[in-house]
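Subject: Interface between my chains keeps coming out wrong

I've been trying for a while to get a sensible model of this assembly. When I model each chain on its own everything looks fine, but I need the whole thing in one frame so I can look at the contacts. Pasting all components below, labels as-is. Any help appreciated, I'm running out of ideas.
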Amino acid sequence: MEVDKGKGEAEETRKVAEADRDTVTLKSSDGKLFEVSKEAAARLSTVLAGMIAGGSIDDNGTDLKQIGSEALENVVDYCNKHANSIPSAALISSSISFNTAPFKEPEEWERKFVDRLSHDALFDLVEAANFLGMERLLDVTCHKISEMMKGKSPDQIREVFNIKNDYTKEELEEIRQELAWAFYDD
Amino acid sequence: MRAPSFGRKVPYVMAAQAQQGPSLTDDAVAEILARLPAICIARFRAVCKAWNALASHPSVDRVLAARRPTERDTTLWPCLWWVDDDDPRRHRVDAARIDRFRGRWHPDVHRTPPSPLAISLDGNDMAISTEAFRSWDGVLCTRVLPRRPDDSSANGYMLWNPLTNAYAVVAAPAPAGHGWIVGGYAHPVTGRFHLLHATDVAVPSDNLAARTTVRILRVGDVTGWREVSLPPSLSTMTMSGEKDRSVSLHGNLHWLVEQPGSGKKAAAVVLVFDTAKEQFRFMAAPERPGLDPTTARLRVVPRGNKQQLCVLALIKQQLPVALEVWVLDDYSSDHRRSWRLRETIGLDGTRLSRARFVAAAAVEVVEGVNEGEEVFVHHEDGIEAYSVRSKVWRRVSVGRRCAALLMYRESAIQPEISFCKALRGFHRGTASHGSIWHSPSTARPDGHSAMPCLGLNPGPWHGTDNGPARCWHGYGPIVALAALSPAWLPAPSLHSVTGRCPLTLVAGRQVPQVATAPSLPPSADVSQPAGAIVHRQEGRRPPPGVARRAARRVAARRGAAAESRQDGSVWDLMDLELKMKCLVLGTTALRGTAWLALVPHSASAVPGRHGPFGHV
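Reply #2:
Try treating it as a single job with all components included. I did that and got this:
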């Protein structure tokens, strides 16, 4: 009985998935499932587009082992917001010119989207965007990080990013001399 | 290479997990770094070894090369350079100025301050030729000409990296006055700058094309120019005028030349110079009947994240006259098939004729911020720009004194583009005269601009981080350094930088009459103790040799200096520091050779003298 019931449920989900074809289910490294509209996923992520076109999308959740649930949630969130933010008529032209168009400043909602993220979440999102080939999201997140970094000294950067200084004193001095032009302000 | 890991601040319990937790891959860090201004990238090399490796890593290079210009931080500069001269036709000037063309496509023309770059040779025997400014890998190159016609030793080429202000002059290969620079590149591995020079020995009459000799120079090498062999089939080639400028892509230089042995049909072929192997080879050009290699232009266009070779050509015997734009989609595979006709641009409504296009001083393809790609044609009558996106020609209005249009792309990946010994300049007698940035146009806020001034390159990055560009120009000529006097120094309000003063001024005796002169007479012997010596105090490692000698001199004069130090107030010192930095940048980008830069520029005008430090 138990087994039958399980089968039935599986069939049911498959039916649902077949009927509901405009979404894809993504599975994070820790096994959480997220749904995202197929259209948005294909448009925003070259990797997902390839998977959808190649038929390697698993209805029970496409495994994305490299991406944690938190980051994936953000990715999905971004996809949904992106889908909502642009009227669909403009989508086609924007996606065509996307590769050649110069980087545009993040829009208001994108700015808000990355502003609310913690550093860690932001870094994870960069990785996820990079992994999924989401150019725009990568642009937006990297832009945010680079904005954070601008005007900071190496010391501040180490502090913010919690990086260990693995230079010896001499090495550091040497590199600073070599790059003297970059250190007017210190 | 190990992926650099952004360490995380994590609760203690999670520390173990975080250690193996996600870290940013090289790609991601490269993406982030590439979005920073060049100066930040350079600065962050001091963060940790992994970042240092990454900032010099080709992946950042690639990202940067492909970076699309953003509003405030534009790597791709269509530059207009013009000359500080009433009569540009003279073709030789004391100072050349370059401004970013902020024209129509710059998003905020009116609020962005101009960022003029300027260079001048402050020597007495050389003038800058304005005929052919070229740019490769972020280095601008032009010819320098002797002021006296009989002085052939002053024939040479000037190299200038506006990003670091590094500057060098190299002698032209003998016989002087023949040939021209056809290419330049920073070596992909060492970063050492190289120049390619071509001559066809005299008589370039129509049918008697002489054999072309191509020479290469590792800038700064004592060995000088050496010949590289062209492909045997290509003993002569016509590389002259604006067309001789090669374009670099994927570490190779490219020219569009006539296919050897093609007879009267004049088929085109792309000549490629592999900078790593130092070898020439051929590559297929677009197979288009009527494509005339002598008039078509080979350029590089940005395409998404990549760059592509592109040929702009007017097709012979075809009416109406139209400009065809061919692009090479796949650089690595079969070129014959990869060339694709991307655009056909009609010339209706422009003042461009076939003859004008052929004679055009510059044909460039740039990618703007808002308006997408544009084709610029600078002909005798002005500049015409075609927007690929909106498919319309427009005239670009520029000042009358505009001399030329130049594509300049900052090369931030290689802040260490090296000119090696050529930079030290003072070794070479007539080869160089120190470096001065003469920027008469950049008036200080207090209106104090009557004096010829020099200054730090107020380049693009100063304005990127902390608001508007700081006014760092407005210093007197560097001779003021050699003969310091308060009368010379600009008002202390110039900058409010305090608390950084790694320099001590150790002045020799004061020489007021020199101090008030607008410049040092060439005969003045500045190698005598009139010169001030600036001494770095902090525990920086002094460059060997130079520092030892300098230190000896400093020690020898310390007694006298202590008395004359009353002028060494804080702002003097700061100014001096900036000047010194300015000089450091100007004369050497090499590690540790900063001291040389302190030599007054006019020192080499003194026969047999090479600055106060002697031969170093």
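Reply #3:
Confirming on my end. Chain B has a mean pLDDT of 56.
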